[in-house]
Write a structure and sequence with these properties.
This protein has about 550 residues and is of the alpha+beta class. The protein has three domains: about 240 residues, no CATH class; about 90 residues, Sporulation related repeat (Alpha-Beta Plaits, 2-Layer Sandwich), CATH 3.30.70.1070; about 160 residues, no CATH class.
Length: about 550
Amino acid sequence: MTCFRPRWLLGAAIAALLLGSASLSVADETSASDKLRILYANRFTFNDEKLPLITVEIASGIRTAKISAKSGVVVRPDGEGGASVLADGTDAWLIHAEQTVPALILDWTVVDTLGPDDAAGIAAALAKWKANGFEPKAFDIGSVFGVDGEVIDSRETRIAIDPVARGKGAARAVEIAKKFSVATSVHQELVRRPTGILVAENHGTVVRNASVLWFAPSRTDQTLTIADVPVGIGGSQLTSTKEDRRYWGSVYVTLGADGTLVVVNAVSEDKLLAGIVPSEMFPEAPDSALEAQAIAARTELLQKIGRRNLTDPFLLCSTQQCQVYAGAGQEHPRTTRAVAKTRGIVLLRDGGGMVDVRYSASCGGHSEDNDAIWDGQPDPSLRGRRDQPSASKAANATRVTADNLEKFLAESPDKSWCGQPKLGKARFRWTQRVAVEDLMTRVGAEFPAIGRVTAIVPGKRGVSGRIGALTLRGEKGNVEVTGDLRIRRLLGGLKSSLFAVDVEGPIARPTAFVFRGAGFGHGVGMCQMGAIGMADAGKTHTEILKHYYRGTHLKKLY
């Protein structure tokens, strides 16, 4: 039985291997020679079917785990190629940890980000911050690999300074940003892995191993069941909602940074995407829309490798921050077919590299620039545009502003791709009333000094009209609020930040604010309702993706 047998490496750091060349055998990366290497490796491997194997968080911060399978569970302390244990019967294995020691993680303040090949720029940045009295360090993240002569590179080099204890980096980054007038972020460095003994028990059979234990069903066509998986907060024990979930492939149990258990699924890309895509788009959507979604989700998945969860023993978390994954049983035949039909196809920039894929439920008739929603440089593949069947260059160049907002909000749904699907009508235009008393529950907790809110004044708007900054005027003072998601949450969970504001009651002391808005979500990249509208009109997945991601092309990697 094959539990996990990688043969092709998808390189990280500097090395790149060309897919399609002669098969290259490598040492089993879950063997006893270095059983933790794959857990923290900044890359993924390919299985016997030449599909990427991804390690995805199932649960973390838990004290015990329970694993079972209908056909029985095989325990492999050292992964594939090592000893294995199959207890009698199909009862669950119970896992806990002993003699645990937490990891040592440092928070660094990132003060510059450069291309990995910019040796002169990296040297200059290091010298600059050394002259400022720090001992800077360069961290390389991301991955690089070659396919049919085309190099796909998601690497970058972060210049970081002033390491502090884990959890204190955010405050320190703010201080440095103010002092030196630079944009900062936090980079975590895993200085020392957590250690301990993993213990698995099953009716008198006990398996003990340092730091990790691997599990697989005794039959490859079966799934593993993980009991009591925390639901709703990224696999964390901080939620009281739990459910049993099934998973394809193998599962390993290891230690998190705090010494508690982390349960991780090592699953092939096709099985993973088959579980993800139905949660991203309605399975009843037209085929070409589902195919576009499958390609977008695959590109997003691979683009994140080596750029997220750098101190965690897995490549991807299972939350909205990464891609929501709830294991086996979530699949739908139509989305699974879309994943299979687009096998190995990703979206690349014409200038090289994978697209930083973003998508939202509905752009409301106009998508948004990436830098208007999140910090960072403008991305030429993520430029806002009119979501219209026959939008001219002039129309695409037209911004939604305070002056033409009312006209835009009054547009017929039939003028936009995302307004045409029946499922998208409620997301295309919407109205939400928020009583001042309800608003103050949130605003008062965060900004108590301004008193009762008397006015909401939109400020900076992006190309789509989405608000990047607004002023809350209160009876005792004013405050500026920035950021798309923060604004939406603070004002009562609005569908988007593309809205106009009306008041109910006296102007000087309103009783409620009424938000009239467009779209659902941040509006960057592919508009999922728009993709469905385009598919209904007979557009292919290629046409859909090129409409929403300009300057791109499709490439079959495997």
